[in-house]
Design brief:
The chain is of the alpha/beta class and 539 residues long. It has 3 domains: 359 residues, Glycosidases (TIM Barrel, Alpha-Beta Barrel); 78 residues, Oligo-1,6-glucosidase, domain 2, CATH 3.90.400; 74 residues, Sandwich (Immunoglobulin-like). Helix content is 24%, strand content 16%. It is built from 14 helices and 21 strands. Helix 2 packs parallel to helix 3. The longest helix is centred in the middle third of the chain and has 16 residues. Bound molecules: 1-deoxynojirimycin (NOJ). 1-deoxynojirimycin binds next to loops.
């Protein structure tokens, strides 16, 4: 069972333009990431980096609008810088996961330029073109994630094309055999160059209803406070514009290609959905995605009983032999320390790194970085340009490394930076936090070390421990044959008690240096989370 590197790994979600600028032009790049690998592996202690898009792109959606899948955009480096990244990472024992963005290209991609050139162009059906509906107007009511209709009128050829995101991001037509072949070649291209796996963008969207039926209206609208989608998107139930059952066959094809590369992993971005629906993405007989993201966890209100219910759902739905991934932060969402506040963001760090799953940590969350509003004239995210659109730039601010110019992110003049640096970067930066034993960074480092040293935390079973303070306290035991840990988290600002039934030694604590022993009944301080070693202490 314990055969794949990614089961015991911690993945770092890098956001390439925001991590470190190696070339001095103001935007993070592959060279900057390569320079950061020492920090990531030796100082922090993660095992794999999900790089973020670096392909040729007009960068209207942070590189998720690809104009050439096999070229590195010059602002991010060159193919040689990618090869160098792979070589240095592998030498350090780090894995590199690249983005695979199969649902859409940029409208600048030569495939789309050809496709829109005439109705008879051989690439016409590489994208989704439709006539106006009888009587005129858009072919159906589908709304885009970026706001407005998914349909854009093309004057020259007199048809609409479909874009599930920005109008500059036309959707590829995966029902066209040549598209599938071309996109599977893209996959091979990066795996041949040494990538250790792919993170697949909006994997649930690849197949749409072939009849293009209208989506039903959402009776209560979008109720999710953490979901930064455009409000238009939340006005309907997205049952026909995505998640068609045929999606699974396409994902199995992708997986079959990846399986030719021993050890390579597929991580699927899929939207929040019921646990039963989520489990389908592992594929029949586990021939689908290795790790479909469980986005429900990012959207669950921060209450112990609600999280427990979601985790019960996750583990109960997990197919036999399947393995989960877990993330609590993401480049599209509000940051943890903003959403939960600094004390509970520390509790969240303990949860993330002690669940029975592969943790995925967003860059900067290890510093407790918070979102910061970006002035309009500095915004990069075109999702914010539609009326009612929300900019995700505030989450994606540059990583603060030290207290030097631009907090070590770049040597370019401040006004030239990709996004403005953190206003509190003088206090919240890697160097400053390394000096402070109780900093966020040192908490993360302790947790990562504790996880690395513990077979129970990496591979063990998970059993939840009930508590009368069910709304406040989440507690669980993690066990292998020779290792036993107990984790208890107080998600409230009041003291709370939990009877864990075993005594042990506190290895990590969010509110104090980890010291001493823990009894059978834990008296947790407000915002306190602990990891306890029970080895050899079983009654
Ligand atoms: C999901 C990505 O996470 C998001 O950042 C992007 O805007 C959309 N997919 C479109 O590619």
């Amino acid at each position: 069972m314990r055969t794949s590197w990614w089961q015991g790994a911690v993945i770092y979600e890098n956001h390439l333009p925001s991590l470190r600028d190696g070339s001095g032009d103001g935007i993070g790049d592959l060279e900057g990431l390569t320079q950061s690998l020492g920090y990531l592996s030796a100082t922090l202690g993660i095992d794999a980096v999900w790089v973020g898009p670096f392909f040729k792109s007009p960068l209207l959606d942070q590189g998720f609008d690809v104009a050439d899948y096999t070229q590195v955009d010059p602002v991010f480096g060159s193919i040689e810088s990618f090869d160098h990244l792979i070589a240095v990472a592998h030498k350090r024992g780090l894995k590199i996961i690249v983005d695979y963005i199969p649902n859409h290209t940029s409208d600048q991609h030569p495939w789309f330029v050809e496709s829109r050139s005439s109705r008879t162009n051989p690439k016409r059906d590489w994208y989704v073109w439709r006539d106006p509906k009888p009587g005129g107007g858009v072919p159906n009511n589908w709304t885009s994630e970026a706001g407005g209709s998914v349909w854009e009128w093309d004057e020259q050829t007199g048809q609409y094309y479909l874009h599930s995101h920005l109008k500059q991001q036309p959707d590829l037509n995966w029902r066209t055999v040549d598209v599938r072949a071309a996109m599977l070649d893209v996959l091979r291209f990066w795996l041949d160059r040494g990538a250790d796996g792919v993170r697949i963008d909006v994997a649930h969207m690849l197949m749409k209803d072939p009849q293009f039926r209208d989506n039903p209206v959402a009776p209560k609208g979008n109720q999710n406070p953490f979901d930064l989608q455009h409000p238009d998107f939340g006005t309907q139930l997205h049952v026909f514009d995505r998640r068609h059952p045929d999606t699974q066959a396409v994902l199995a094809e992708i997986r079959a290609v990846v399986d030719h590369y021993p050890g390579a992993v597929t991580i699927a971005e899929i939207e929040a959905m019921s646990w039963q629906d989520w489990a389908v993405y592992y594929g029949a007989g586990l021939d689908g995605m290795h790790l479909p993201f469980p986005f429900r966890l990012l959207e669950t209100p921060w209450r112990a009983d609600l999280l427990r219910a979601e985790l019960d759902g996750l583990y109960a739905s997990l197919p036999t032999g399947a393995w989960p991934i877990v993330a609590l932060g993401n480049h599209d969402r509000e940051r943890l320390a903003k959403r939960l506040g600094p004390e509970q963001a520390r509790v969240a760090a303990v949860l993330l790194l002690t669940l029975a799953a592969t943790p995925c940590l967003l860059y900067g969350d290890e510093l407790g970085l918070i979102d910061q509003p970006v002035p309009l004239d500095r915004q990069r995210d075109y999702f914010a340009r539609a009326s009612g659109g929300v900019s995700r730039d505030s989450t994606r601010i540059p990583m603060p490394w030290d207290d030097g110019p631009n907090f070590g992110f770049s040597s370019a003049p401040e006004g030239q930076l990709w996004l403005p640096v953190a206003r509190n970067g003088a206090d919240v930066n890697v160097e400053a936090q390394l000096r402070d034993p109780e900093s966020f960074l040192n908490l993360y480092r302790r947790l990562l070390r504790t996880r690395a040293d513990s077979t129970a935390l990496r591979y063990g079973s998970i059993d939840f421990i009930s508590s009368p303070s069910a709304k406040e306290v989440l507690a669980y035991a993690r066990r292998t044959a020779d290792d036993h840990k107990v984790v208890a988290l107080n998600l409230s600002d009041r003291p709370a008690t939990v009877d864990v039934g075993v005594a042990g030694t506190v290895l990590v604590c969010t509110t104090a240096p980890a010291v001493g022993s823990a009894g059978l009944v834990l008296e947790l301080e407000p915002h306190q989370a602990v990891v306890i070693d029970v080895r050899g202490r079983r009654p």
